Amino acid sequence: MRVQVVNDLNKEEIVAFPLYVEAIRFAFHEEGMIRTAVRALTLNVYHVGDVSVNKYIASIPHADYFLNLVKFFREHCISLNGMVSRTTESLGLESTSSIFSAVDEIEDNLYYFNDVVSAGIPDVGTLVTDTMLKLLIFPLLLPSLRVEVSGGKKFGSVTSLYLLCCILRILKIKDLANTVAVALICSIEGLLPNSEAKLNGFRADHEENHDSHVDDEKPSGNSDSSSIIVSPSLSISPSVQHNSRGSASVLRDALISFIMSGDDVQVVGSLSVLATFLQTKELDESMLDALGILPQRKQHKKLLLKALVGEDSGEEQLFASENSTSKDGNDGDLNIYLQRLKDQYEVSCSYHEVGESPRVLDALISLFGRTNISADTLWDGGWLLRQLLPYSETEFNNHHLQSLKDSFKKCRSQLLDEARGTWPDLLLQVLCDEWRKCKRAIEASSPRKEPKSILFPTKKYSPSDGMPAESSFAAGETMYECVKVFVLLHQLQIFSAGRSLPDQLPLLPPADFPESSRAKTAGLNVTGPKLTTELYLVDAVPCRIAFERGKERHFSFLGISMGTSGWIILAEESPQRLNYGTVRVVAPLAGCKPRIDERHTRWLHLRIRPSTLPLTETAKNVANLKLKSKSLVDGRWTLAFRDEASCKSALTMILEETDSQCKEIERRLRHMISEEEM
């Protein structure tokens, strides 16, 4: 559609546009393809760029189309909230698939909104912003961050955090982003009348006996801001940092509270919202400063400017940058949006500078010391910390440095335990791999996850996830979690000391194998044992094992370690060469947990784990983890020896070789561990 075509219809003013009017009648058709066609047609109309077309589109009753679009979008959001609530109660692939479909629909709607606004029709952009705030953000999303309803429906904080991230990332509207930011930093009682204020389900210090619920009815066409009134402000308790579940009438403090003491989902959601604000180009720096997430380099620039021009000089107003915050904490842009919140949206609020409330930096340092949060989530916190503090130790106070040091020491101790755990042979490789991944993740220019990850969070492994605690796979999950946390805290230690992160871990090189080792005696080369390889069996112990019922086989048993690797070998004696045999079965030495049977002292029980860990990524949906864990079962061997002495000899061989393997791993880790002794 071209401007000339429109002008040919009417030279002065468009009085009728049947094609457009008929098209938007099908905008909410149940068939998705029809909705897509309508959107394609309307976007063509909006991008004509003709004044008369714009005037026609924004006039009554045609402007109701945009109001109905927001209502339609709100219904999708309410539907998603119901799905998320039900999925939390009963995890399953079917419900997860439904949420993915709902998320795709919601994001498609937002991209359409953004295309509409980017067409440059001023009245339409304002209408979309106002209705989005009045019908969705103010009455549903923001209150759910701190309000839980008693005896009624509620809009979950998880869904709200996701939707806020999506709206801010996709809808490139300056007024929308800044208004939401102002709403987060204002001290307010509630965004809905008759609400019982709680911080995510925990009753606030200032309790009110009210009720609140999510209205599933579509808002009436004449909905206005008078239905969204906020009560007078509450004061913020200075002790909120020590009691993060206390009163928090400032929603920014609710986000910080989630980071300090919320569960994985709340932490991921809060970090995502803060990261989204940090990445939103439409947001004024004064808002970032008020939220407590203005990067230090920009704070330094602001303070330097003040020092140069003088705080009280008349030149300050002349030379201060547009985004520089004045000494009372509020600049012109912040005041404008505060006033707009009161006048245009009738939100009664007051602003208190970030001073006494817990800072984001404090919350992040606290987060890194938490042991009930998944490593993947901690990495997200590491990314945000690097964005806020790109200039190393000068930005950390003594408390921050000591907290990081204490967290690192605890994790280092856990890592050393893993060196003698079930998967020590994989520990060094996993460390190197995760080091590179973590460095890449926290140094990236943008977060590595999309907003939808809030709805499908990483969960730290626990026995309730389906795998028995004695399983080697459970131990593998624990090892991966430990390594991921260790490399993050290790990198934060280096970062806080003012050094650049190395690309590789400072591991010591492999040691030479002693000539007296069983591996050398058996004639094993550096590649390790392979099937059909011939070995010298002078140290081997004869045994019997049945891999199938009624089919017992005779083997020579060997436990061998070579550097950080180790194997259990069953070899078949060679009829041609005395004391030589061919390798028939190989299994990992680590994690075999040898045990002599209490009643049959010639029997040795072994647990046989895989040579590699099938679940190589800890970022798993809990439902998938439970399904996958059902097929992960350790092998069990029972070896029968000639006599009790032979059985004990085999047990001793396993223990000695396992100890040798673990000592080599500890030796190679020693330099890296001791280097960060702080």
From TrEMBL:
Positions of the UniProt region annotated as Disordered: 207-228
Pfam families with a match to the protein in the record: FPL
One term under GO cellular component: Golgi apparatus
Biased segments, Basic and acidic residues type: 207-219
GO biological process, one term: endosomal transport
Coiled coil (residue ranges): none
Domain FPL as annotated: residue spans: 11-46
Protein's recorded name: FPL domain-containing protein
Native organism: Centaurea solstitialis (yellow star-thistle)
